[in-house]
Amino acid sequence: NGPTLGNPQNTIEILQKYQFSFQKKFGQNFLIDTHVLDKIIRAAEITKEDMVLEIGPGIGTMTQYLAEAAGKVIAVEIDRNLIPILSETLSMYDNVRIINEDVLKLDIRKLAEEENQGRPIKVVANLPYYITTPIIMGLFEGQVPVESITVMVQKEVADRMQTGPGSKDYGALSLAVQYYAKPYIVANVPPNCFMPRPKVGSAVIRLTRHDTPPVQVKDEGLMFEIIRASFNQRRKTLANGLNNSSRLSYPKEVIAEAVEKLGKGPSIRGEALTLEEFARLSDILSESRH
Ligand code: SAM
């Protein structure tokens, strides 16, 4: 008993049995390395008390590991050609529910409500890379009760989520992720752990949700608008980025004054500011409105 997938032979066998052909547009790269699977499961710290949401189960490789560890697994897969395969590979588990749906169209908050009485869920996935950011931001911003997100992403994206000011990878995604969660890169994963092999390196990252945000800000929406505007034009100064934003409409003088109040010179760039400083800048600007 136990998981049967997670190695190249069994993966090829099941794919051939169903004459499955990979769909590039769905970002299908299936895991074929049991060590990586073990690492993901360990990092996610799943217990029998947990409900796990898996996004994109593929042929059910990681789902088998999750079903062994969790109380319940909900697996959301967009590709209907994978559904008959999943019925076979997961037939020995009675704690798995498969939903054939686009995860971006699914009301995950409602799902957690119905399936887990609104208690926080854990998200574990080898994500389809083309929608990494909308999936993660959707979970954080959509008021889904999530305790942690442990996911395989493109290595470069993992770096962007984890880094701070001064790094070339620092940007709006770093700040958004770090406002909601504490990132931790669990492992780097080379292309040969997947079938077919992706063109990019991958990494497993765990995002543990903060109980309360690490900074206090009066208007969250405004802060994220400011963050977006200041990283829109990387080579420009913070003040220029804010002046050129179509969604913020502060007079030049107000922006210049706010930057000064923050204790920064006029040539400061957005990429030098910490989350704390963006929060303070946001509060200064939101007061200037009135
Ligand atoms: N979990 C499997 C594994 O590790 O072997 C497959 C991972 S593969 C990188 C990503 C999976 O997400 C594919 O099965 C793909 O069909 C599915 N997928 C892609 N877009 C999706 C979407 N919008 N909603 C749900 N699943 C999606």
Automatic annotation (TrEMBL):
Q: Where in the cell is it found?
A: Cytoplasm
Question: Which SUPFAM superfamilies does the record associate with it?
Answer: S-adenosyl-L-methionine-dependent methyltransferases (SSF53335)
Q: Which GO terms describe its molecular function?
A: 16S rRNA (adenine(1518)-N(6)/adenine(1519)-N(6))-dimethyltransferase activity; RNA binding
| Domain Ribosomal RNA adenine methylase transferase N-terminal positions | 36-211
**Tagged with keyword Repeat:** no
- Per the UniProt entry, the Enzyme Commission number(s) are 2.1.1.182
Q: What class of enzyme is it?
A: transferase
- CDD domains reported for this sequence: AdoMet_MTases
Source species, domain of life = Bacteria
Give the SMART domains listed for this entry. rADc
**InterPro entries named in the record:** KsgA/Erm (IPR001737), rRNA_Ade_diMease-like_C (IPR023165), rRNA_Ade_Mease_Trfase_CS (IPR020596), rRNA_Ade_methylase_Trfase_N (IPR020598), rRNA_adenine_dimethylase (IPR011530), SAM-dependent_MTases_sf (IPR029063)
Q: What are the UniProt keywords, alphabetically?
A: Cytoplasm, Methyltransferase, RNA-binding, rRNA processing, S-adenosyl-L-methionine, Transferase
Q: Does the keyword Methyltransferase apply?
A: yes
Task: Provide the reaction this enzyme catalyses.
Answer: adenosine(1518)/adenosine(1519) in 16S rRNA + 4 S-adenosyl-L-methionine = N(6)-dimethyladenosine(1518)/N(6)-dimethyladenosine(1519) in 16S rRNA + 4 S-adenosyl-L-homocysteine + 4 H(+)
Q: List, alphabetically, the GO terms of the cellular component aspect.
A: cytosol
Q: Looking at the Swiss-Prot or TrEMBL record, what is one Pfam family this protein matches?
A: RrnaAD
Cited PANTHER family: DIMETHYLADENOSINE TRANSFERASE, DIMETHYLADENOSINE TRANSFERASE-RELATED
Q: What does this protein do?
A: Specifically dimethylates two adjacent adenosines (A1518 and A1519) in the loop of a conserved hairpin near the 3'-end of 16S rRNA in the 30S particle. May play a critical role in biogenesis of 30S subunits.
Q: Which family does it belong to?
A: Belongs to the class I-like SAM-binding methyltransferase superfamily. rRNA adenine N(6)-methyltransferase family. RsmA subfamily.
Q: What is this protein called?
A: Ribosomal RNA small subunit methyltransferase A
**Native source species:** Dorea phocaeensis
Name of the gene: rsmA
